[in-house]
Amino acid sequence: MAVHAQATAKYVRTSAQKAGLVLDLIRGRDVNAALATLRFARKGVARDIEKVLRSAIANAQQREGFGGDVERLMVKACYANQGPSQKRIRPAPMGRAFRVVKRTAHLTVEVVERPTIVKAAPEGEAKAGQPKRARGAAPKAKKAAGTTRRKPAARKTSGGRARKAAAKD
Question: Looking at the domain covering 4-113, what would its CATH class be?
């Protein structure tokens, strides 16, 4: 059975939308590629996401049934949910005050151990004299000569502008 582990960081001082941009880069990748991507991502939140990913890897290593090979772990899911927002007031011109919203996010990263892939034995050779086709590709149908229809000719319009109807008295 595949090992499944997750880690969460709550109240991270970034917006969920900004964190989501970086999380999209690592979703579905193996953990080593994800760590390399985060290392060179030019976003501040990448450092926080890297910490959460390392924590998820450590959680997977502690799980019962883990094979011990971190190379087989991959990022199954990662998402950022919106946390509570802190409201602050910034002085504005003419005695007014503007509201500043300092957003937070809850980051979650789930890792899963990839199952071992067993390769099937290759099928027999292609039939003699016929080239191999790509899987799922249907054989091409031959078109009969002269069966294509032409579009009807476009209607000709007068070159002038449409005239308005005469006003009734």
Answer: alpha beta
- What pTM was computed for the model? 0.67
CA distance 90 to 102: 12
Query: Which 3 state secondary structure label does DSSP give 43?
Result: coil
Give how far Cα 45 sits from Cα of 2, 49, 50, 70, 126, Å. 29, 6, 9, 24, 53
Distance (Å, rounded) from C-alpha 4 to C-alpha 27?
15
Q: Could you give the CA distance from residue 50 to residue 40 in angstroms, rounded to a whole number?
A: 11
- The share of the chain scoring above pLDDT 90, in percent, equals 60
Where along the chain do its domains lie?
Answer: 4-113
Over range 38-56, report the average pLDDT.
96
